[in-house]
Design goal:
Layout: H1 4-11, H2 15-23, H3 30-43, H4 49-56, E1 61-65, H5 72-87, E2 91-95, H6 101-113, E3 118-121, H7 128-136, E4 141-144, E5 159-163, H8 166-178, E6 184-188, H9 194-209, E7 219-221, H10 226-237, E8 245-248, H11 251-263, E9 273-277, E10 291-294, H12 297-313, E11 321-324, E12 327-329, E13 344-345, E14 350-351
Parallel strand pairs: 1-2, 1-3, 3-4, 4-5, 5-11, 6-7, 6-8, 8-9, 9-10
Antiparallel strand pairs: 10-12, 11-14, 12-13
Helix pairs in contact: 1-2, 1-3, 5-12, 6-7, 8-9, 10-11
Length: 352
């Protein structure tokens, strides 16, 4: 097996120069760097990652903690994280916190003990223990998808990457209102999540923009999962004046809502219109095809990696929150006739 000394002899440089090229610990002239890389390729040299981590105090690994990895949304985020990490020479360690605050803190501690260089975490609805651990140990971290109000919270500031939630949800409501609906229900997500709060805010803003009075009986939590959405829709259908249109606040709840509507003998969109937050690969295979807000999930994952690497390169820079724009996929579950497939941006992304 070739050694670093073999690479140095082949490239005509010192072992120290080879180390600087491979570990990126000091600038090296372009032609010298290329000679080293050519020698590495020719000899088939494989760096000793463990030894390198002892020298640089870096393992070139990232910890990723997201719940419901089987959810298509988080699966696509994972793909974006993995591709961006690999592009920059980082490996990935993955854990599922199961949206349980205590388990969340434990899995993050386990990732930290594996000496990951930094973490990307989708926090639970009660992330106090998580944030305290990350802050106490000064772990470079990007919060993903679910944001923390760092201005009101005494916890340390963290970089955050997520999609726009408020404006796109309002867009779904105003679209249904423009179709003539006056009683629009919302199947909301798990209480305590920022995505839930922001989508409820967007729902209310949409009602206000359409001149509709809010009715709290029309907002029922589906707890961000399919069976919860089934129960929520049953509650809505039992109202004396049930909604004529529904907005579901994530893809899992959309599936549950469709199942419940079928159970209650309601046809979409003839009996009740439906719009959903979260598009997914087979949304246009349903009959009717689902009108949805599509999040840029792979881009969210890739952006989280870029922000984390910037944090590792400049640990003292101010924390920032990056929001990426969603698109409006106009199909037929809202009651509209078939539309050309040209997703429209629903709101510009923001950076703070």
């Amino acid at each position: 097996m070739p050694t670093m000394a073999d690479v140095a002899r082949s490239a005509g440089v010192s072992v120290a120069t080879v180390s600087h090229v491979l570990n990126e610990t000091r600038p090296v002239l372009p032609h010298t760097r290329q000679a080293v890389l050519d020698a590495v390729e020719e000899l088939g040299y494989t760096p000793n990652t463990l030894a390198r981590s002892l020298v640089t105090s870096r393992t070139r690994s990232i910890g990723l903690a997201v719940s419901a990895i089987s959810n298509p949304y988080f699966t696509e985020i994972l793909q974006g994280v993995e591709a961006a990490a690999l592009e920059h020479g980082y490996s990935l360690l993955i854990a599922d916190p199961h949206d349980d605050p205590e388990h969340e803190r434990k899995v993050v501690q386990l990732l930290h003990e594996r000496r990951v260089d930094g973490m990307i975490v989708a926090p639970s609805a009660a992330p106090g223990g998580l944030l305290a651990y990350l802050g106490r140990h000064a772990v470079p971290t990007v919060l993903l998808d679910r944001v923390i109000d760092c201005h009101a919270d005494p916890a340390p500031r963290f970089d955050q990457v997520c999609a726009e939630n408020t404006g796109p949800t309002a867009r779904l409501v105003t679209h249904l209102a423009a179709r003539g609906h006056r009683r629009i229900g919302l199947v909301a997500g798990l209480p305590g999540l920022s995505t839930t709060d922001e989508r409820i805010t967007g729902y209310r803003q949409g009602l206000a923009a359409a001149g509709l009075a809010p009715d709290e009986d029309l907002v029922v939590s589906g707890n961000s999962e399919s069976t919860g959405a089934e129960r929520a829709v049953a509650v809505l259908m039992a109202l004396a004046a049930p909604p004529t249109a529904l907005v579901t606040a994530n893809n899992a709840m959309t599936i549950g809502a469709l199942r419940a509507l079928r159970t209650h003998g309601r046809s979409v969109p003839d009996d009740i219109a439906l719009c959903c937050f979260d598009d997914f690969a087979w949304a246009d295979l349903f009959s009717p095809r689902l009108t949805a807000v599509a999040q840029p999930s792979r881009e969210i994952g890739a952006e989280a990696v870029r922000v984390l690497l910037e944090r590792l390169a400049a640990p003292d820079r101010p924390a920032r929150t990056v929001r990426l724009p969603c698109t409006f996929a106009h199909r037929t579950s809202c009651g509209c006739p078939e539309q050309p497939e040209h997703p429209e941006p629903s709101r510009e992304g923001t950076l703070s």
